[in-house]
Design goal:
With 185 residues, this protein is an alpha+beta fold. The chain has a single domain (21-181), classed as START domain (Alpha-D-Glucose-1,6-Bisphosphate, Chain A, domain 4). It has 3 helices and 7 strands. The chain has a 7-stranded antiparallel β-sheet.
C-alpha cells in the first residue's frame, strides 16, 4: 500500500540536509536541452549502478500530468523496491525540482525524504551546464540522522560522496546521451 500522506511534509532548507552535487556540460543551448529532457522517461535516464538499482517503470498516482507541479508517481526499481516522487517546481529552460519519499529499499531506512534539483545553466559557446543536486532529510530517530549535523556529515562522506556520486555521474551521462539522441518535443 502506498502512503501518499507523507508528501505533505515541509521541506527543510538545503543547509539542514545531506547534499551532493554533480554537473555535466551538454552541447545544446539550455532551451533545447530542457525541451529534450522535460518529461523524459526515468527508465531512459536512471540506469542504476552495481549499488543503486535502475528505474524500470513509473505509475501515476494523481491526475496531474508529469512533469507539471504537483504530479505524483510511484517509481519502480529493478530490485522490486519503490518510492514516490512529486514535482515541486518546473520552470521552463531553467529549473526542475522534485521530492522523493516512501522508499521501500532497505538501504533507505535512514532517509525521511530526498529532494532533487536540476539547473539548466548557460555554458560557453551556448552549451548547457546541467547541475544536479540531491539532498536527503535523514530520520532523526535512526543512525546516522540521530546525530544531527555529525550524522549528515557522516552520511554525506560515506554514502553521498561515494555510492550516490557514482549513481549521479552515471545518470548524468545517460541524461546527456538521451538529450543528444532525442528530438525536441
Amino acid at each position: 500500500m502506498i502512503n501518499q500522506d507523507e508528501g505533505q511534509i515541509q521541506l527543510l532548507p538545503t543547509d539542514k540536509l545531506a547534499s551532493h552535487e554533480e554537473q555535466i556540460v551538454i552541447p545544446l543551448p539550455p532551451e533545447e536541452a530542457y525541451a529534450r529532457l522535460n518529461g523524459a522517461s526515468l527508465e531512459n535516464v536512471l540506469p542504476g549502478t552495481d549499488r543503486i538499482p535502475a528505474v524500470v517503470g513509473t505509475k501515476p498516482l494523481n491526475d496531474i500530468a508529469f512533469p507539471n507541479q504537483g504530479a505524483r508517481r510511484q517509481v519502480m526499481l529493478a530490485d522490486n523496491s519503490t518510492a514516490i516522487e512529486e514535482v515541486i517546481e518546473n520552470t521552463p529552460n531553467k529549473y526542475f525540482s522534485y521530492k522523493v519519499w516512501g522508499y521501500s529499499i532497505a538501504a533507505a531506512r535512514p532517509i525521511e525524504y530526498g529532494k532533487g534539483e536540476f539547473w539548466y545553466l548557460t555554458a560557453n559557446n551556448g552549451q548547457t551546464t546541467l547541475r544536479w543536486r540531491y539532498s536527503f532529510k535523514l530520520r532523526s530517530n535512526r543512525f546516522p540522522g540521530m546525530f544531527g549535523p555529525l550524522g549528515r556529515f557522516l552520511f554525506t562522506k560515506v554514502f553521498l560522496d561515494r555510492t550516490y556520486a557514482t549513481f549521479m555521474k552515471s545518470s548524468l551521462k545517460a541524461i546527456e546521451q538521451y538529450a543528444l539522441q532525442s528530438e525536441a518535443r
